[in-house]
């Protein structure tokens, strides 16, 4: 009779598990290590406490406003860590999508509380800040060193066409509302807005298919050399995929709470401070996201190394 030898795989030792946990904790600490971010994290519990202890609308708004800034920065950092595991194009799309997470969450809270004017102003403010502030900053910094750069004309025209379509979608309902009898046109504007929203979602889906599938070669023509450099210089992810996804979920929930508390105080702060709801949506809410991502925008300029497609895509992609 032949003897059968069974070899059991060694179980991970306690020291191995402890080393893994310590490495994960150290990676998380490195993510929140910047001094200004560590200081602003204090406002997260303070913002929540201010709402439940009724410290007043001004305190609730200010504390939660400051609390969302580090949360948006952390969400962007974790998203970038996830993006390192996938291709440059899809990673850029993922980062551009999550950069708008703050505006999206705050807008949902404002819609739930009936602050439609704040939602409208925040959408417009986000587009203006990305196209003027962010893109203008890119051009200023890059143009200071080199006078002329090449870019992919087809990709730029595609993004410009989508932005034109989005502007038309905002202008038409506004024009109808301003020049028609409100009692007669209200239902028509509502139906038009619903139809426009569906059309914009469908067009955006086609744009993704165009960019990532059918015509991705148009977006890769100028990136071939940059991608070779990226393979050599690309950073390694600091966190495991499961930890990154879990952190993204936790941070998103925290943003949802702080955003809800911030929106709930807009009515009161508008009455006491004289700040209009339009100003809050047009200026203050977009600032929360753009201030948090200012470091990432400057890093994108540095890493682009003359690749104007990456620069334009980072700014315009967030607006789209």
UniProtKB/TrEMBL annotation:
The Gene Ontology terms for molecular function here are: calcium:proton antiporter activity
Q: Which Pfam families match?
A: Na_Ca_ex
Keywords in UniProt for this one?
Antiport, Calcium, Calcium transport, Ion transport, Membrane, Transmembrane, Transmembrane helix, Transport, Vacuole
Localization per Swiss-Prot or TrEMBL:
Endomembrane system; Vacuole membrane
Source organism, top-level taxon: Eukaryota
Q: List membrane-spanning regions.
A: 35-55, 121-146, 158-176, 188-210, 241-263
Keyword set includes Transport? yes
Q: Which GO terms describe its cellular component?
A: endomembrane system; fungal-type vacuole membrane
Q: List each copy of the Sodium/calcium exchanger membrane region domain by range.
A: 60-212, 244-320
Q: What GO biological process term is on the record, naming one?
A: intracellular calcium ion homeostasis
Topology term for the membrane: Multi-pass membrane protein
- Spell out the family assignment given in the record's similarity comment: Belongs to the Ca(2+):cation antiporter (CaCA) (TC 2.A.19) family.
Job of this protein: Has a role in promoting intracellular calcium ion sequestration via the exchange of calcium ions for hydrogen ions across the vacuolar membrane. Involved also in manganese ion homeostasis via its uptake into the vacuole.
- Protein name, per record: Vacuolar calcium ion transporter
């Amino acid at each position: 009779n032949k003897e059968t030898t069974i070899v059991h795989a060694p179980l991970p030792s306690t020291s191995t598990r402890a080393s893994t946990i310590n490495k994960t904790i150290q990676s998380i600490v490195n993510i929140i290590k910047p001094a200004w971010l560590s200081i602003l994290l204090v406002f997260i519990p303070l913002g929540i406490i201010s709402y439940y202890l009724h410290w007043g609308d001004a305190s609730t708004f200010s504390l939660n406003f400051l609390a969302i800034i580090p949360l948006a920065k952390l969400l962007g950092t974790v998203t970038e860590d996830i993006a390192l595991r996938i291709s440059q194009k899809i990673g850029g799309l993922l980062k551009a999508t999550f950069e708008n997470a703050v505006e999206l969450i705050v807008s949902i809270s404002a819609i739930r509380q009936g602050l439609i004017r704040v939602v409208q102003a925040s959408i417009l403010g986000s587009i203006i800040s990305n196209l003027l502030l962010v893109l203008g900053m890119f051009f200023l910094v890059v143009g200071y060193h080199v006078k002329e750069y090449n870019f992919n004309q087809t990709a730029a025209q595609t993004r410009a066409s989508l932005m034109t379509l989005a502007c038309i979608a905002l202008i038409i309902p506004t024009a109808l509302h301003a020049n028609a009898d409100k009692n007669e046109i209200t239902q028509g504007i509502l139906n038009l807005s619903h139809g426009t929203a569906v059309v914009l979602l469908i067009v955006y889906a086609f744009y993704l298919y165009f960019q990532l599938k059918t015509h991705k070669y148009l977006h890769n023509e100028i990136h071939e050399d940059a991608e070779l450099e990226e393979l050599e210089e690309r950073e390694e992810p600091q966190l495991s995929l499961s930890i990154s996804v879990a952190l993204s979920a936790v941070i998103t929930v925290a943003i949802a709470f702080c955003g809800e508390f911030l929106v709930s105080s807009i009515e009161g702060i508008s009455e006491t401070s004289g700040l209009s709801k339009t100003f809050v949506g047009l200026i203050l809410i977009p600032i929360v996201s753009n201030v948090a991502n200012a470091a990432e925008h400057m890093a994108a300029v540095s890493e682009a190394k003359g690749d104007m497609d990456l620069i334009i895509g980072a700014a315009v992609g967030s607006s789209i």
